[in-house]
Specification:
Largest interface: A-B, 57 and 58 residues
Oligomer: homodimer
Strand content of chain A: 15-25%
Largest sheet of chain A: 7 strands, mixed
CATH class of the largest domain in chain A: Alpha Beta
Distance between the termini of chain A: 36 Å
Number of strands of chain A: 14
CATH architecture of the largest domain in chain A: 3-Layer(aba) Sandwich
CATH topology of the largest domain in chain A: Aspartate Aminotransferase, domain 2
Number of helices of chain A: 14
Number of domains of chain A: 2
Amino acid sequence: MIKKYLLAPGPTPVPPEVLLRMAHPMIHHRSPDFSPIMEEVSEGLKWLFQTRHDVLIMASSGTGAMEGSISNFLSPGDKVLTVNGGKFGERWGKICKAFGINAIEIMVEWGEAVDPAIIADHLKKDPSIKGVYVQASETSTGVAHDVKSIAGIVKNYPDTMFVVDAITALGVFDIRPDEWGIDILITGSQKALMLPPGLAFASVSDKAWKMNERAKCSRFYLDFKKERDNLKKNTSAYTPAVSLIIGLQQVLRTLREEGLQNVFVRHSLLANATREGMKGFGLELFPKSSPSDAVTAVKAPEGFDGQQIYKRLRESCGITAAGGQDHLKGKIFRISHMGYCDKFDVITAISGVEMVLKEMGYSGELGSGVRRAEEIFLIL
Amino acid sequence: MIKKYLLAPGPTPVPPEVLLRMAHPMIHHRSPDFSPIMEEVSEGLKWLFQTRHDVLIMASSGTGAMEGSISNFLSPGDKVLTVNGGKFGERWGKICKAFGINAIEIMVEWGEAVDPAIIADHLKKDPSIKGVYVQASETSTGVAHDVKSIAGIVKNYPDTMFVVDAITALGVFDIRPDEWGIDILITGSQKALMLPPGLAFASVSDKAWKMNERAKCSRFYLDFKKERDNLKKNTSAYTPAVSLIIGLQQVLRTLREEGLQNVFVRHSLLANATREGMKGFGLELFPKSSPSDAVTAVKAPEGFDGQQIYKRLRESCGITAAGGQDHLKGKIFRISHMGYCDKFDVITAISGVEMVLKEMGYSGELGSGVRRAEEIFLIL
């Protein structure tokens, strides 16, 4: 028997009570069975997003909401800034290309956070830039970009919107769209929301809705305005992913009970213990600065293959973590600590890494990483 | 206590064993846990679709696949034929408009099937028409269009593709894309596939893939070619709706055990008993011809409000059926008999309608509809 531990940065584990809630008999989406659920979930999402604006719900992966944040607000030929500091930052550029948007890509070395001053420079030189697109947490590198500072810059440009992909950030650490000035804030179901993949969410500011009126990019299935109009009637433009929304109702209740600040404190503690534990075992973190509290990217030690670490964690420990993507393949491995995660998930991850690397011939001292994590948990 | 019966044309009931299968712990989509599931599901979908072509899987509602069947194969300014004989036929025109496609809408009175000769005439006059878009089963009216005959016509035009929305048809009655010449065949998860909403599917012929090479409409999230390339590696372009695909694995096993022809025979029998039962109680069917085996649309008797029938079925019988949409609201009600449905679901529906209409003052004889349905089931 080998027990399984899902410690990858999405999908993340779904709490058993949520799994069972979603296993209830199907109900009809255009019926009085479903509309009170939509109503509760809409309210709960505003609380989670810390916004007074409607939070749209789409039956799609997070990429659907990323596309929608471009196609619903821009016209072919429009110019935007995108921050490319990893696989998901790169995706902004690809979507822009598909929609005929002129994306100026700010290239950031993978593992580093963008310098907000670069964005300020671009906007000063060219106020015709219609939007700035960035990740709050770049899943591929484990780096958090400073969206608060960037929001403070973009805020001064009345015709430029600020779009944040918080797919692996929302519900992990504090992001305040209304207070800071984030015009579109995106997340997905399978990360801190502890649900199966299949739902994407987006909050939209008044500034962005004004841009929506003139936006000429093609869109139909991912039409944000149509979703907003339907949401006001506690329904959706097209058939919603009913079972996932029922799971969301349960998740939002659980999170509200814990309290949003407590959720952030928990994630911060788990992330800190993971980082310190890995360093305690002699490993080096991949991010040069600003590590994300959602996922920790660790460098494979010199002479060790990161994919082998990933593979052995799965095969001998039952732990599904993540390897590196694209040119980081083999160079790093990643451990998630977001969503349905507590201190013993972190202990399990560090212990698994210790045993696997020891077996591979690494020289670190067994238990030294776990000890460091325990000290963090005990505030020693 | 009131027991609940879901007899609406989607979402349809999900079998308990499928609900429980989907309640298993989450697994990672880019891992050896998931790829064998994708492999099995891909094979099973080819069997279900009766095609040798890949069947793409999208995390979206059926409308996502409808959009993709336009955006992946056409360029702005292209001319197509769409059959508008109901709410879903009308949607083709709306999607075309959103993508700058010139749609010639063939208007068919709601409740009637399109005359294939009209399509033949259009194509003869204008062979520059790039595609013909139609529903196999128009859910809003309960009418089945004759897609076999239309396929036989479109087949003769090498630069025209034939696209069929079989969202409430596939797995209900026989549709043979390769044999008949359907270039794109679409379905969704929440109908005959007995799953929660959130997945859309599309098979694509070689003729359509050739058109894909020149198609210039904007697309990113619903990029069919990217999905095909990933499907060959038993994965998906973006995070798939893992739990629904796991449910699909279970559903396909169940359907294969029953056998495809038996599935069709079952649906045909249930549909026939529903139609005859309603007539046996003195009611009139809405379709003038070619009723669909997926859903039966029944006219509210003269002087009775269809929405009241729908409402009373829900409130006093626990039966969620469907009312009429748009201008049919109040004029009809609809009973589904697709998916996880057997003869006592049909008996329940007819009995519920008998009791509700009797209470509303209708003159029909109680039990006369049920009697007629029983005769059909006993082949009397």
